[in-house]
């Protein structure tokens, strides 16, 4: 059944969905990696494509920017479209000097100051975990296809951190044992919705900026320079 944000029919959406933030990235993935794909949603320009990768039916659907946006789309996919697995693929900022431009990060757990869980479910929750089974598949796949990843805790924020006038104050408020390796803007509501529905979610990110790196990825690089992460997500979905 269609929702206010998704015109696809239930059978149009695969059990496993890979979610980039950018609708044009979803289009890029469908055109360059999927076979026999079709556009199944374009409401609000939030493109969703369903096709086949190595014979596996997979949906690629954009989720937009920020916790509320992915919160809406992942909620509807889990609840109304019977989706079992969502792998978010996106960009992130590096918080440690070991991470270089276009390195890939897999989040184990994510901290956020967002009140998403409190507003949605009266749950004063600020730390949620990726699904262990799905993360294990991604880890094993990364070894099998020789695409290295960095694994660790991450933070999910409500602003683009390079714009924050004193971001160090946020870092000071983090739990002392969190030791985040990167930050992004969406994983918290995805992980929380997966927990709420007893479904599976993971988050893969490619480093596109860092205070330790002078170069910042351009918008064109962000769209096309993330192929290793895309391939890792697709190969993991097949497993």
Summarize the structure.
The protein is α/β, with parallel strands linked by helices and 239 residues long. It contains 8 helices and 10 strands.
Helices and strands in order, then pairings?
Blueprint: E1 16-20, H1 23-33, E2 35-41, E3 48-53, E4 56-61, H2 67-80, E5 85-94, E6 104-111, H3 116-121, E7 127-129, H4 132-144, E8 150-156, H5 167-173, E9 182-184, H6 187-197, E10 200-210, H7 219-224, H8 227-237
Helix pairs in contact: 2-6, 4-8
Description:
Strands 5-9-8-6-10 form a 5-stranded mixed beta barrel, surrounded by 4 helices. The protein has 239 residues and is of the alpha/beta class. The protein has helices spanning 23-33, 67-80, 116-121, 132-144, 167-173, 187-197, 219-224, 227-237, and strands spanning 16-20, 35-41, 48-53, 56-61, 85-94, 104-111, 127-129, 150-156, 182-184, 200-210. The protein is built from 8 helices and 10 strands. The chain has one domain (10-237): 3-Layer(aba) Sandwich (Rossmann fold), CATH 3.40.50. The model has no long low-confidence stretch (mean pLDDT 94).
């Amino acid at each position: 059944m269609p929702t206010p944000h998704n015109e696809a029919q239930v059978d149009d959406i695969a059990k496993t969905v890979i979610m980039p933030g950018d609708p044009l990235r979803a289009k890029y993935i469908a055109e360059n990696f999927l076979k026999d794909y079709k556009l199944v949603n374009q409401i609000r320009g939030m493109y969703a494509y369903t096709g086949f990768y190595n014979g596996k039916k997979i949906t690629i659907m954009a989720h937009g920017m920020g916790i509320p946006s992915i919160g809406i789309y992942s909620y509807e996919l889990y609840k109304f479209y019977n989706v079992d697995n969502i792998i978010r693929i996106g960009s992130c900022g590096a918080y440690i000097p070991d991470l270089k431009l276009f390195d890939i990060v897999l989040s184990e757990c994510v901290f956020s100051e967002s009140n998403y869980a409190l507003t949605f479910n009266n749950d004063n929750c600020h730390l949620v975990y990726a699904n262990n089974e799905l993360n294990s598949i991604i880890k094993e796949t990364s070894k099998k296809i020789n695409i290295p990843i960095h694994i660790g805790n991450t933070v999910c924020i409500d602003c683009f951190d390079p714009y924050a006038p004193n971001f160090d104050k946020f870092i000071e408020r983090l739990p002392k044992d969190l030791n985040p390796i990167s930050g992004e803007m969406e994983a918290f509501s995805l992980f929380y919705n997966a927990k709420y529905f007893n479904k599976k979610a993971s988050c893969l990110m490619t480093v596109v900026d860092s205070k330790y790196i002078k170069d910042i990825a351009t918008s064109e690089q962000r769209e096309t320079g993330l192929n290793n992460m895309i391939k890792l997500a697709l190969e993991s979905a097949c497993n």
